[in-house]
Design brief:
Elements (H helix, E strand, L loop, with lengths): L1 E8 L4 H12 L4 E7 L4 E6 L6 H10 L3 E4 L1 E9 L4 H12 L4 E7 L4 E7 L5 H10 L3 E4 L5 H37 L17 H18 L1 H12 L5 H24 L11 H25 L1 H9 L3 E6 L2 E6 L8 E4 L8 E6 L2 E4 L1 H4 L5 E3 L4 E2 L4 E2 L4 E7 L5 H14 L5 H28 L4 H14 L3 H20 L2 E3 L2 H7 L4 E5 H5 E12 L5 H12 L5 H12 L7 E7 L3 E6 L2 E6 L1 H6 L10 H4 L5 E7 L2 E12 L3 H10 L3 E5 L4 H11 L3 E3 L7 H9 L5 E5 L5 H6 L2 E5 L4 H6 L2 E3 L6 H34 L2 H4 L7 H20 L10
Parallel strand pairs: 19-26, 19-28, 26-27, 28-29, 29-30
Antiparallel strand pairs: 1-3, 1-4, 2-3, 5-7, 5-8, 6-7, 9-10, 9-11, 11-17, 12-15, 12-17, 13-14, 13-16, 18-30, 20-25, 21-22, 22-23, 23-24, 24-25
Helix pairs in contact: 3-13, 5-6, 5-9, 6-8, 6-9, 7-8, 8-9, 8-14, 9-29, 10-12, 12-15, 13-14, 13-15, 14-27, 14-29, 15-27, 15-29, 16-27, 18-19, 27-29
Length: about 800
């Protein structure tokens, strides 16, 4: 029997707890089931051979609730990986652990993201499993300026080490290649090492020149043979086997020459081993150098936060480390300085450059009580502000975490490459042996067979396959962050390019969400300003959106407001109030009809007002005085964004609780294809589900709490940055600028990234598909040349670098402005 504790979501009363208990007790194999409503936890004792956690979760789900295991998500830095086969080996080793729910290893970032049941498996179990597979796992404590500096220093050390290894390899391999091959093309050799006059010295000099190259690249042999003997061969295994075969054959030939068999002087293979090692090291150096450029977005974001902050403490101005800032500290920022943490302005005015966080190039004006974001740049005024979020809670830290998670995730398109690379190395070793033996038994020499064997091993390393997808995702999500589009996962990035319909919430998404005065119509000699001033005075203090709009418009126009008396709210109709000894009625047409107030010449005005506007009738001393029309205005870029989506062949729908007439008026204004009106907040998700029933990929764009279920239901949920935390948590993509023009940007970025991944995978597959048969001697079979192992090494190194360089082209991505 096994006892587990699961968190239960959705319970509201004791009856809910009873329902969950009954539904789980019915399962075969469950011994006891107890639900604690206060802690919202289910403690269940069951037989693992008869029922699984998934069965229990399904039973709870059918009862109308959700059961979630107590799980932890951690990230580990992995050392020792050289190719896609290494990543597959680590995934297989750790996935075998009981309690591991989900994991993926990313070759490009050299990190493992793992979700596990902490009551079953521990961090040490995970690191031990990785160690047993031949690699090292170190728990990632999270991003900070120090950890980024440490990572940067580690990468720099690795780059310097590889360059040093290549230089030493090249210094010895170059004269070795000249000595071994030069005489074949008539190049002069000193007599004492000329194979015709002194074959012993000729062989020994080559052995002495090869040894330093082998020693300086000893890590390839340590890792390669260790993983081979553990049954998980990787790229280093292929290189180690191939170069060892060449080197050992050279040693054998040298012994034979020293024994008097001078014919072996023509069959020395030292230069092959040394040149392959030099070229592989050069390729690894270029790959590491290029790979470092894929994570520049994270480095830029990290560099935004200053390392110190200037505060008022105990009446004095002090400068402290950013890590010591606490909530409610008063922070001082001077012109040109970066804001250290998030907060609210308490004193001063300025303009703040938030472009690196939101992609918005125009500085934003900040006054007292305005929010400010850590990492943005104070442009022209000294301000003081109260810290509201520090450390990992700041917007910048959250963005960095989102981008890191996205860069560490896998897109579905990567699965095929992962499966292939997992079996690739053992298959290549088998092909190398079989092709070598086939040529030998077909009558070729042992040296010919060895050449085939080494060429196949060296040309077929699966580095390009492993780097094709993660590098493009890293750069794609990084470019998104630079443009204010936060893409949370590789899956979201991939799905976005398949979208056929995008559903927009109306209020606060297509429209501003704040009604504005659009029309003022007066009669009986009253001026527009007088009418607006009286109406605003009457609505002062009102919490009704229409009343707030009228007051805001009057204040923006600098109108005087008067004191009111005898305020009376008339539910469903409007208000009655005395202003300047005048009796004012403000409300809808029903209010005017109830008080028998004739609209006179205004009776036809309602029809003249555009659809989607709400009229507020104003009567003074029982005589109609005018109409103030209020409407929720469309955002500046809504029309342009929808036009761009149409150009991409994407259908645009709008969902709203408004009546059909108002909804269709807005839809006509912005060019919406399909209108879903009079939809209750709780029904938005089911409307999205209906659209999905048409067999197409759907995105939902929204900003409010009531949009969260629909965002979660959609294939891609897109939240706008001004929305609620709940909406942003439910979404797959977050638009930092709250600008709908970033929706087509997200689609464009997805299309560009997926196209890049497909190019990378095509070249990686094409390279191996063409390279392996050539290395096996298919061209030679038809009278063509035999591929030299040295050319095979150069081609293998180039394949990885070419994939990385192609991925880096994504850094040139710019949103279309047409």
């Amino acid at each position: 029997m096994t006892t587990k504790t699961l968190n239960i979501e959705g319970m509201t009363c004791a009856s809910c707890a009873q329902t969950v208990e009954k539904s789980t007790k019915k399962l075969q194999g469950v011994n006891t089931s107890n639900v604690n409503l206060a802690t919202e936890k289910l403690s269940i004792d069951f037989d693992e051979n008869k029922v699984s956690i998934e069965d229990i979760q399904t039973a709870v789900d059918k009862a109308g609730y959700k059961a979630i295991a107590d799980t932890e998500k951690k990230t580990f830095s992995i050392s020792g990986m050289t190719c896609a086969s290494c990543a597959q080996t680590i995934e297989k080793a750790t996935s075998k652990l009981d309690g591991v729910i989900d994991l993926n290893v990313n070759l490009a970032t050299e990190k493992m993201n793992i979700q596990y049941d902490s009551s079953v498996v521990t961090v040490s179990d995970i690191t031990d499993a990785v160690a047993n597979a031949g690699y090292e796992a170190r728990e990632d404590v999270g991003s900070s300026s120090e950890s980024v500096d440490e990572d940067h220093e580690k990468k720099e050390r690795e780059i310097k080490s590889l360059w040093k290894r290549f230089l030493i390899s090249a210094i010895f391999a170059t004269p070795l290649l000249y000595i071994a091959m030069g005489h074949l093309i008539g190049a002069p050799l000193p007599r004492f090492i000329d194979p015709e006059f002194n074959p012993e010295a000729f062989a020994l000099v080559q052995l002495v020149l090869t040894l330093p190259v082998v020693v300086v690249n000893k890590s390839i042999y340590f890792v390669g043979f260790k993983t081979l003997f553990r049954g998980h061969p990787n790229m280093d295994s292929l290189i180690a086997i191939g170069t060892s075969a060449a080197f050992l054959y050279g040693v054998f030939a040298t012994v034979m020459i020293l024994s008097g068999e001078i014919s072996f002087a023509n069959d020395l293979y030292f230069e092959t081993a040394a040149v392959i090692l030099a070229l592989i090291t050069l390729g690894k150096y270029l790959e590491t150098l290029t790979k470092g450029r894929t994570s520049e977005a994270i480095k830029k974001l990290m560099g935004l936060a200053p390392k110190t902050a200037r505060l008022f403490r105990d009446g004095k101005e002090v400068e402290i480390s950013i890590d010591e800032v606490v909530v409610d500290d008063i922070v001082i920022v001077k012109p040109g300085e970066k804001l250290p943490v998030d907060g609210v302005v308490t004193e001063g005015t300025t303009a703040v450059d938030e472009s690196m966080l939101t992609g918005e190039s125009i500085p934003v004006e900040k006054n007292t009580d305005d929010p400010v974001i850590g990492g943005s740049i104070n442009k022209n005024g000294t301000i003081q502000y109260r810290a509201t979020k520090v450390g990992k809670d700041t917007a910048l830290s959250q963005i960095i975490k989102l981008v890191e998670d996205a860069q560490g995730s896998k897109a579905p398109i990567a699965k095929m490459a992962d499966i292939i690379s997992g079996y690739f190395v053992p298959i290549v070793i088998a092909l190398a042996i079989l092709s070598g033996l086939a040529w030998y038994f077909a009558g070729q020499t042992g040296l010919f067979a060895l050449t085939i064997f080494i060429s196949v091993l060296v040309i077929a390393c699966p580095c390009a396959l492993g780097l094709a997808t993660p590098t493009a995702i890293m750069i794609g999500t990084g470019k998104g962050a630079e443009n204010g589009v936060l893409i949370k996962s590789g899956t979201a990035l991939e799905t976005t390019h398949k979208l056929k319909t995008i559903v927009f919430d109306k209020t606060g998404t297509i429209t501003e969400g704040k009604p504005k005065v659009t029309d003022t119509v007066t009669v009986n000699g009253l001026s527009e300003y007088e009418l607006l001033s009286l109406a605003a005075s009457a609505e002062k203090g009102s919490e009704h959106p229409l009343g707030e709009a009228i007051v805001r418009d009057a204040e923006e126009k600098g109108l005087d407001l008067w004191k009111t008396t005898a305020f009376n709210a008339i539910p469903g109709h409007g208000i009655e109030v005395t202003v300047n000894d005048k009796n004012l009625l403000l409300g809808n047409k029903k209010l005017m009809d109830d008080r028998n107030i004739s609209l006179g010449s205004l009776s036809g005005t309602l029809d003249q007002l555009a659809d989607g506007k709400t009229p507020m009738y104003i009567a003074i001393d029982d005589k109609i005085a005018g109409i103030i029309a209020v409407a929720d205005t469309v955002k500046e870029n809504s029309v342009k964004a929808i036009e761009k989506l149409h150009q991409m062949g994407i259908e645009v729908a709008m969902i709203t609780g408004d009546n059909k007439r108002t909804a269709e008026a807005i839809a006509k204004q912005v060019g919406i294809d399909r209108v879903l009106s009079e939809v209750l907040p709780e029904d938005k998700a089911s409307e999205v589900k209906k659209l999905q029933g048409e067999g197409i990929k759907i995105a939902m764009v929204g900003d409010g709490i009531n949009d969260a279920p629909a965002l979660a239901q959609a294939d891609v949920g897109i939240a706008i940055g001004s929305g609620t935390d709940v909406a942003m948590e439910s979404a797959d993509i977050v638009l930092m600028r709250s600008d709908l023009i970033d929706v087509p940007t997200a689609v464009q970025l997805s299309k560009s990234t997926i196209r890049n991944i497909k190019e990378n995978l095509f070249w990686a597959f094409a390279y191996n598909t063409a390279g392996i048969p050539v290395a096996m001697g298919i061209l030679f079979l038809f009278g063509g040349p035999l591929l030299s192992p040295m050319f095979a090494a150069a081609a293998m190194s180039f394949s990885s670098v070419s994939v990385l360089l192609n991925a880096l082209r994504l850094k040139r991505f710019k949103p279309s402005t047409n």
